[in-house]
Amino acid sequence: MRHLLSAGDLDRDEATLVLDTAAELARVGDRSVKKLPTLRGRTVVNLFYEDSTRTRTSFEVAAKRLSADVVNFSAKGSSVSKGESLKDTALTLQAMGADGVVIRHGASGAPHRLAEWVDGAVLNAGDGTHEHPTQALLDAYTMRERRGRVEGLRVAVVGDVLHSRVARSNVLLLHTLGAETTLVAPPTLMPQSVHTWPCAVSYDLDEVLPKTDVVMMLRVQAERMHAAFFPTAREYSRRYGLDRERLARLPDDAIVMHPGPMVRGMEISADVADSPRSTITEQVTNGVSVRMAVLYLLLGGSAPAIGS
Amino acid sequence: MCARKRAEGETADGAPQRAETAPRAVLDGPEINRALTRIAHEVLERTKGGHDVTLLGIPTRGVPLARRLADRIERVEDRSVPWGSLDITMYRDDLRLAPARALGRTDIPPEGIDGRTVVLVDDVLYSGRSVRAALDALNDLGRPRAVQLAVLVDRGHRRLPIRADYVGKNLPTSLRENVAVLLDELDGRDAVLIGPAKPRPGQEDDA
Question: What confidence tens digit (pLDDT) does each residue in A216-228 have?
Fold first, then answer.
């Protein structure tokens, strides 16, 4: 059985197949009967060890639109709080016949371990500071919708790269799809291994903005910060926050993205978040279509059409 | 959908031996044209002028056929007929027998299908399973007043209680044969070819 663990698992054809499939499935959302019978009789387990609103509901809606049975499992209120290990939880789910497991976990690599223990397809819905492949896919989908293409786009990913699984998945997928990515962050929030990533690096947002087609703001992940990475929130915001003045430095057709949840006034100002150039709510809508596509391609046939 | 791109080498001698030879043409371009023109007239007759007709082609090759029928009806009646495409991939009963397939396009004309006479258009009618899937797909999109079926070729071997209302050509075939429809829009020329079936795992019930 194949899985979707990393955005880097997808080659260009597979990634394009996901985006094309999502484009067709997006139209299901406009119909009166927003349901397809494709995954009837299949069970998808949402295994969430970390809090999430957007991703969990998005996967749930996606699976239900494909007529799969959805079981939601969150660490709170489960046997995990009684000390059950990930492996035992996985084997329990396995025994109940899960065809697909969507996992979010605080530990980087947890989905890879899970994939060794269960027969069903494992979909990584965010593991620690490692990867979040469906987010990267929905971001690429949104870029393609707004800009007509992904290849050749200049994308700036700005903010807390160090703690961001979105940044890594985006860099890998955008590289596969032929876009040029520049990571922008204070040196303290840049991963040490960043020179091995297929992207450029900058510490100066104002210098990058005029040469950018897509600017993707990342949330400062205070809950993962156990040290002082920048002096004050205000200083961070002044140097790396996207406000109206910085928005004006972007080319006229550039778009502003944010994976959510956003902290208004920190990495993005309220008027920028609500501007017509922001795609933040579109990203949420597109997330459902992209996750439907991934679920269909992994679970719909006799063998998955994508993934590792 | 039965149509598959075939090798160009077909025997022109029209010899009756079918098995294990290169595909041979049973309909050429002008014959396909005449069949479509006749079907267009039959649709108009049967639907009393076709005022509430919507043509929906089943991808891949049903779609250009639906467009050609719409063109012909427009030429005869001087009135445009809504046409679109209806992808059935997600409704197929053999999805689990092969790796997940790429989806085709579903384009319903702005008039919708509620209360209209929907004519489904496909290239080859075989087992009837595609048509069953199309009926399910339609059911999720609205409630047509009636649904009819137009096919370019009926090759027999039905597995479901389904029949076509309009048939371009009835083509008696053996189960060991494959019928391929080539259309100018997709394949560069119009032809219906018959040749030995290629083994396709899990798909002996296609179309």
Answer: 999 999 888 887 8
| 3-class DSSP assignment, residue A83 | coil
Catalytic residue among A31, A82, A195, A226: A82
pLDDT tens figures, A189-210: 999 999 999 999 999 999 999 9
Q: pLDDT at position B133, please?
A: 97
* Chain A neighbors of B201, CB-CB under 8 A: none
CA distance B141 to A24: 15
Q: Could you say which of A17, A35, A36 has the minimum Cβ distance to residue B102?
A: A17
Q: What share of chain B is helix, strand, coil (3-state, %, to 5)?
A: 30, 25, 50
Report CB contact under 8 Å: A33, B87. no
Residue A300 pairs with which residues in a beta bridge? Answer: none
Q: Is residue B77 part of a domain?
A: yes
Q: What is the pLDDT of residues A165-185, one digit of tens each?
A: 999 999 999 999 999 999 999
Range of the domain at B142: 30-91+112-172
Summarize the confidence of residues A29-44 as an average pLDDT. 91
What is the third-level CATH fold of A133-279? Rossmann fold (3.40.50)
Tokens of B175: 């189960």
A84 pLDDT band, cuts 50/70/90, is: confident
- Is B103 domain-assigned? no
Structure tokens at B2: 């039965």
Residue A30 at interface with chain B, using a CB cutoff of 8 Å: no
Q: Would you tell me which CATH number, out of the four given (3.90.226.10, 3.40.50.1370, 3.50.50.60, 3.40.720.10), belongs to the domain A7-132+284-299?
A: 3.40.50.1370
Is A87 catalytic? The answer is: no
Which CATH number covers residue B85? 3.40.50.2020
A298 touches chain B (CB under 8 A): yes
Q: Is A82 a catalytic residue?
A: yes
A297 interfacial to chain B (CB closer than 8 Å):
yes
